[in-house]
Each structure stands twice: as structure tokens, then as C-alpha cells.
């Protein structure tokens, strides 16, 4: 079994994501901030476990629903929250928002609002690692809906042919916007799509961080060893609908939601760690108190930060063209 330190580290990431997301939703509900927000609630365990299998130098690409992926990879909370509420202290000086959360300092290389858009970018990052002999692996996170997009299929094909050091992680939360996934695909498991391209494809319970960590480690080791890509389908559920605060969620069956919430990965993993003797109630409560303070401080910092100066409207927006 995975060591205690790794498992506690996974829980700490999950809890940091959980509290940050909760704070974001509170600030939006209070009217303190007015931003579009795609909650990752329910999906915390996936990137928390995958990140534990990565080094600080490895890369990720993600989507508009990527706050959890970004926090799990180690992006500083103050700057992340400032970015999503449009403040000049944010990771992209408040000009990117949730659709463009990036922090190359910790390997968060690209977030795309284009469904499937981050997948070919991951191939590019992985190709660079391969060509320069860098050991870096790239993980690309995307949704079940994205696995119907052409760019996903083209990217899997290219990555398999060129044995790129990339791991494709599909966060299958059963919905694409307001459409149940079985209305937009005719295969039960996204993972089976890997076989068309000659790479391993595995379906994992994404809400079981231990299973997720094992699958991620196998895939990351394979990529790092030059053996090529893997598709991991992480089964999960989206507790807050598509866009937070706007979505009525009437199209999601009540029993389905209730069953998913009864298996909420955050309290479930906490309890498992205690039951298996990997931690104690006191130790985990102290960890949570520390993270609570960190999140509260980060929210304060972001709320007290100024918006971008209108004079900087065009700064960092266009690349400087250097004449040949
Ligand atoms: C190419 C493209 N088509 C359509 C959209 C509109 N759109 C935004 S999110 C979304 C659903 C994507 O679902 P999924 O990939 O499962 O991700 P999830 O939101 O569930 O995390 C769609 C269709 C878009 N942003 N980009
Ligand atoms: Mg989805």
C-alpha cells in the first residue's frame, strides 16, 4: 500500500481544493465577486492523486473546470484566487480568469476554454520533452465530452505513433454541459477508445484516490521510460452542475445526485485514512485547520488586491513581433 505520507499529501490537496472551491462559491453567492465559475466539487481526488505521482517539473494542461488541477499541481493559492476574481496580483495579472489559469512556474502550462483544446497542446509539450531529452511528463486533463472532439482523437493517434511522454486523463463526470454523456457517445467506457490508437486505456474510480494514484503512477512511469502514452478514464461526478449559480441542474436525476453525494470523495478518503490507521483524528484536524487558515488568508489577499490598471490593457496580451 502507498505510504502514509503520500496518502496524507493527497488528502491535503483534496481538502485545499475543497475549501478553496467552497470559498469561491460563498464569495459569488454573497455578491462579493461577480465571475463565471466552473466548480470542480466532487472531482477533487483525481488531480490530488495524479499530482502525487508527478514531479514539480512535470507539466499539465487543463480546462475551464481546472481549479482543482491547478491547485493540486502546486500553484500558489493567493495568486490563483486573485486570478479567478480578476485581480492584478493573479497568476496572469487578472487577465486570464478561470478560462486561462496558467502558472508555468509549477508546470501548469495551459488552460483552454475550447473543449478538447488542451489535449494537442499537451502533445506539443511532450514532444519538446522528447526532443530535448527532458524527463518531464505531461498530463492533460479533459472531460468526457471532450473525448468526442476531433482534437482528442488526433492527439491520441499522434502520441501513440510518436510514443510521446503524455498521460491523457479524462475526468468522466457523466455530463457535458446539460447533456448526459450517453446521449452523445455510444460506448460505455471512454477508455476503450485507447485501443483504436494502440495505447493502454484504463477505467478507474476517480473518487478513490488510492486507485487513482496507482493508475497514475503506472502511466507516468511508462511515459517517463519512453514507452508512450496512456489513457486514464477517471469516473467521477459533478456536484455543482456546469456553471455555478446559473445551472438549475434539473436535468440531473435527484437519486443519481444523492447517490454521488453519499460517496463524496473528500469525507470518504478522510475516513478511510483514519480507519486504516494512516492518520488520527487529531492529526487530520490539525492539517485541516492549517489549510483553513491558508485559504482564508488567500481569499483576503485576493479580495484586497486591485483590479488590473486600464493603462495595462494591452500589456502581456500580444507577443512582440521581432523582425527577421
Ligand atoms: C469546441 C467547443 N465546443 C463547445 C463548447 C461549449 N462547451 C463548453 S463546456 C462544454 C461541455 C464539455 O463537457 P466535458 O468535456 O465533459 O467537461 P466538463 O464540463 O464536464 O468538465 C461545452 C460543450 C466549447 N467551449 N468548445
Ligand atoms: Mg463532463
The proportion of strand residues reads 5-15%
CATH-level-4 superfamily name: Thiamin diphosphate (ThDP)-binding fold, Pyr/PP domains
Rounded radius of gyration (Å): 19 Å
Output the structural class: alpha/beta
- The CATH architecture can be given as 3-Layer(aba) Sandwich
Low-confidence stretches: none
Give the CA-based shape.
globular
Q: Give the overall average pLDDT.
A: 97
Following the backbone from N to C, one meets helices and strands in this order, namely HHEHHEHEHEEEEHEHHH
Q: Using DSSP, what is the number of strands?
A: 8
CATH level 3 topology: Rossmann fold
How many DSSP H or I helices? 10
Number of domains: 1
Could you give a short account of the major beta sheet? 6 strands, parallel
Q: Hetero groups bound? A: thiamine diphosphate, magnesium ion
- What strand line-up does the widest sheet have? 2-1-3-4-8-7
CATH domain class: Alpha Beta
Helix content: 40-55%
Structure write-up:
The protein has 324 residues and is an alpha/beta fold. The chain has one domain (4-304): Thiamin diphosphate (ThDP)-binding fold, Pyr/PP domains (Rossmann fold, 3-Layer(aba) Sandwich), CATH 3.40.50.970. Helices cover 42% and strands 12% of the residues. The chain is built from ten helices and eight strands. The chain has helices at 4-30, 45-52, 67-72, 77-84, 118-132, 150-161, 209-224, 254-262, 265-275, 281-303, and strands at residues 59-63, 108-112, 138-143, 166-172, 175-176, 179-180, 201-205, 230-235. The strands form two sheets. Strands 2-1-3-4-8-7 form a six-stranded parallel sheet, with helices on both faces. The chain has a two-stranded antiparallel ribbon with strand order 5-6. Helix 1 (4-30) packs antiparallel against helix 9 (265-275) and helix 1 (4-30) packs across helix 10. The radius of gyration is 19 Å and the shape is globular. The N and C termini lie far apart (57 Å). The mean pLDDT is 97. Thiamine diphosphate binds at residues 65, 113-115, 142-146, 173, 175-177, 238, 242.
